[in-house]
Amino acid sequence: MKHHATNFGLFVLLLSLLAVPMAGFYMFNYQPAAESGYEVPEYVPINIVGGSEVLSDIDQRLPLESSMETTTD
Amino acid sequence: MFSRILVKLVDEAIVPALVLLVARIVTALVLTKVNNIPFSFTASGFVYGSQDEFLFVNSYSTLAMVCVLTVGLLYVLSKSHFFHATHIKPHTSARLFSLNLSGFIQTSFDLYSQGAIWLSYAYLLLFSTGVMVYFDLIYSWVFYVSAILTIISTYLFVIDVEKELQISKEQSPTNQEAVLRFGDEEIE
What we know:
The complex is a heterodimer. By secondary structure, chain A is mainly α. Chain A is 48% helix and 4% strand. Chain A is rod-shaped, with a radius of gyration of 27 Å. Helices cover 77% and strands 4% of the residues of chain B. Mean pLDDT of chain B is 87; it is low at 180-188. By secondary structure, chain B is mainly alpha-helical. The relative contact order of chain B is 0.10. The interface between A and B is medium-sized, with 27 and 41 residues.
């Protein structure tokens, strides 16, 4: 009985060794760009002027460079 | 009593496991460095900023594993075909001894345990790449490369086992008994 237990342990050890390289497949992942902060987010911040009134979605958008800086800050 | 086969298989499985894992991680790091791909290392491993970058790194690092597997399988299969103790050619054997490379000549037990381990890794990789292709986590051609490698190496391994079985059949005790009986009859 003890021999069977020992050999079964060896078998489990062998299976776990075989699984070691396959564990590498779970080491890689990705996040959507907007959450990761590595790329330009999906939205562009709007500079609101004149109190709480938004004057224009087009005219008041910041340039791309400054909007990136805004998000990283 | 430890099972001799299991101990041998465990012994043979350690090095390939580490080599395959290291190949994947090193390739991923080199690819991210060369292509300036930003990533972060978190508790869940390497996290990339976009799916395209992830796909690129995941595919080519898996391909690196396939390449390492190819080298390992080629090494074992070439040993089993050309330097197998049971059917090595005499002049090859003599040349290996003259070059002090007699260690290349191996028994069936050594060769088949190594072959079984490397083939197991090939099938596990084939299964893993199949799952990843299904979920669009790698390029599909990586799976096809892995499948071709597995099929060819299995075929070559089976050919060698067939050759071994043929040799052991020719050298079986029943044949030797027949020869002895034939000799006895002649003496009588």
